[in-house]
Amino acid sequence: xxxxxxxxxxxxxxxxxxxxxxxxxxxxxxxxxxxxxxxxxxxxxxxxxxxxxxxxxxxxxxxxxxxxxxxxxxxxxxxxxxxxxxxxxxxxxxxxxxxxxxxxxxxxxxxxxxxxxxxxxxxxxxxxxxxxxxxxxxxxxxxxxxxxxxxxxxxxxxxxxxxxxxxxx
Length: 169
What we know:
By secondary structure, this protein is mainly beta. The chain has one helix spanning 10-20, and strands at 41-43, 46-50, 55-66, 69-81, 86-93, 96-100, 103-107, 109-113, 118-129, 132-142, 147-151, 159-161.
């Protein structure tokens, strides 16, 4: 009998995505640091496990929670490597929504690459925190360097709206 998958860290990528997003007057930082040691709770209408392909597919109104982070999508696929069942990557699609505290990020697809320590959210990406917003076609979050890169397709533009906090008018 195989061991159950340990600490999937599905929501770690969501937390880091939102914590590193450059919104508001604060610089990009790990303000709401995520605790990846907390258990991951995933619910869906259906689960398909494939030990030959080393993946687990959650289908139908998928909701994953870890600590104060929630990710929802119609489908999520977890890819793992044998023999220790380490997570290789996690894909969530189509229409991904990530919520952590007052931050919300949406996109067509989200992928967490465990080995590279990065998250890629693609397709009409929007990040919101209060009135502040950031829109683009892709956002890449590098987890180790508190760095993010937002880009748009050729000929497109990244859009950001920041509202000053406090101070005289």
